[in-house]
Amino acid sequence: xxxxxxxxxxxxxxxxxxxxxxxxxxxxxxxxxxxxxxxxxxxxxxxxxxxxxxxxxxxxxxxxxxxxxxxxxxxxxxxxxxxxxxxxxxxxxxxxxxxxxxxxxxxxxxxxxxxxxxxxxxxxxxxxxxxxxxxxxxxxxxxxxxxxxxxxxxxxxxxxxxxxxxxxxxxxxxxxxxxxxxxxxxxxxxxxxxxxxxxxxxxxxxxxxxxxxxxxxxxxxxxxxxxxxxxxxxxxxxxxxxxxxxxxxxxxxxxxxxxxxxxxxxxxxxxxxxxxxxxxxxxxxxxxxxxxxxxxxxxxxxxxxxxxxxxxxxxxxxxxxxxxxx
Length: 326
Hints:
Elements: E1 3-7, H1 8-22, E2 26-30, H2 46-50, E3 55-57, H3 62-74, E4 78-82, H4 93-100, H5 103-106, E5 116-121, H6 136-140, E6 146-148, H7 153-165, E7 170-175, E8 182-186, E9 198-201, E10 206-210, H8 214-226, E11 232-236, E12 239-241, H9 245-255, E13 258-265, H10 270-281, E14 291-295, H11 306-309, H12 313-324
Parallel strand pairs: 2-3, 2-4, 4-5, 5-7, 6-7, 10-11, 10-13, 13-14
Antiparallel strand pairs: 1-8, 6-12, 9-11
Helix pairs in contact: 1-7, 3-4, 8-12, 9-10
């Protein structure tokens, strides 16, 4: 069957399996990705089927994992690295931003860096410290890195395929609290460009732009607003670097209002860049300032308080009401 209904985690697993089958140079590396199949079981069964030389259990050493992946890429491999949780990436940050991101430019284009770094990110799972962060802006700021995040199973499958095929490094943020949300995956489909935003719901009164875990919240907000006679367009950005500003502009020129939603802190977040660019591009179309909804400028709280921290339906709808009040 070409079309299957799969959870996001299984869609990524199937995509990794396809890549391993199609290209002997694809390798998977990370903590517990082999025998255990990953803490979220995203790599379940892959080591059993492809062996320990292609699905590699590594030491607990993120800097070493990424550094090894860079060396493998230099030798012609396409390593897919898992960082077990979002907050664990920082020991590898130096390798990512000073080596991985800059190698292509440093070599004047002669060296490719086809490395994918998978990072389960975001909150909503009741985890302890360092397990619920949204550090995507730190990587989107760094030239030389592509930064993407799927919100559904079909994108999870196809965007992983495209990330692995890319000759540039891709930071692939996986919305961990959506891992078991199911959706249809057509393995014979022709996917759109990796960094193109997609209209997830048509609307006329206001645009909600989001990516990863917040797309579902925005779709719920649009459904709730419809009951009050408001028509909200939901734009799934899919990519944080590069950002498809043309798609955002086209939507805003139609709706004349924009609210950007993400889990990461509002302060210097992705929404800040989008707000600035769209204000420049759409100044004479906007009927309200671009508003942002996100996390607070504070360390991620203990699990009992995370529902107060995470943007939810009420905070999104409050921003919608404020925008429409102008």
